[in-house]
Amino acid sequence: MRSTILKRTSRWLGASALALLVGIGGVSTAFVMTGQAATAQVQNAAQIIVPEAVQPQAGFADLVEAVKPAVVSILVEAEESPRNVQRRGGEFNFNFPDLPPDHPFHDFFDQFGDQFGQQGPRGEQAPRHFMAAGSGFVISADGYVVTNNHVVEDATKVTVVFDDGTEQVAEIVGTDERTDLAVLKIEGTDLPFVNFETEQSRVGDWVVAVGNPFGLGGTVTVGVISGSGRNIGGSNYGDFLQIDAAVNTGNSGGPAFNTKGEVVGVNTAIYSPNGGNVGIAFAIPAATVKGIVNQLIDSGTVTRGYLGVGIQDVNRDIADGVGLADAKGAIVSNVADDGPAGPAGVKSGDIITAVDGDKIDDALDLSRTIAGKSPDSTVELTIWRDGAETTVSVKLGTLNEEALAQADQGQSPVPPAPLPAETSVGLTLVPNSDGSGGLLIQNVEPESPAAAKGLAVGDAILEVNNTPVNTLEEFESALDAVKAQGRSTALVKASRDGNDRFIGLPLAAD
Fold first, then answer.
1. Section 149-163 average pLDDT
2. Would you say the pTM of this structure is higher than 0.90?
């Protein structure tokens, strides 16, 4: 018992007091200390003082009371072959539309039940009416409402429900699938509305999410911004805010507020290994939302700049292969035949490191930057080519799905030809039998650098060090040229299933 009491005492007294008890020869000495001396011991400690600005708040009731009238529930009627969703044991019975498995918002709907419905004459599921629920918020006194595209997609009727129960049928002004945003319009002249943030939020800032999870309506959850610039699967432009405020099915399209009552993001997706909220949700940042919403209100559509290139990230191996100091930028894997980049002089193998002087970190950064430019505007690309920096001016086109598909086109591998030959990097190569150029991989040594970099049988080697290779001699000669330049990594352009990509292939020392 004594030892237990001493341990508790030591925690209460602290390290400095215990030093006095032991070092001066007795407990009685410690009791002779005056109050002032004891106070001095505490003041000399390395005390952490929390700034007043981040002291805990009493609550968010005043904030919620102010913004809640502008947050709405979105009820959607549609005709689709849906994934039927039932809330068994409750009064709610919502059906949510099918989403492809790789859709970033598939998790919102996948966990709620088995799919069933009326069958067509041949056994297929017949189209039928269903209802979906989401969230939104009013951004103007005359009735413009922001929500997610996937909330109103395929809708035949959209109803906006205010917190006081007032309902209005809404018109869909415009949608943007790439950012998953939509704008609705309801009638009104003096409606309650909220504004977007005026200063960019930071990681660690408070966020308050208000929405319609599971059709409950008017639900408030609180957390912080956990991260920024997140890239989630299926997204075209990334740059999501990550928040830990609870977000569930039905919160989609709703706002996340800062402590000023300004919208910092639109709640859009969740990460969930089990179908429930685990504290990882994603919101489209206000800066992105404002630009898209303004275009949808003005014209009903969104236009984006188009460069006309296929791109990939620059990793350390690729940077070493071209003599680039920093592994940043986007390398051009192919150039669309009639896109704007080709006539301006952009080539496959170029690494775009900046646009109009703004540094480019990776392929996603370049995609976002170009998409944010106006079609027909001229941009200046800073390019790393042949070991030196150059600039190219390009007049952008307008992005559309056909143009995007063309930019992704590449050479398709053909069946292997006879007479394979082994290389110095663990590949067995054969020329294309149809004479279209390049070398096909017929075998990869398991322990070779080529295998480690993901090259596989059936891939086509198109270029080495930005030089086309059609024979084994050309391939080995290109590798020798890389070594002669004092580099230990070769930049190899390969193709798989029609998609071109660059690989930094390490070379063995002679």
1. 92
2. no
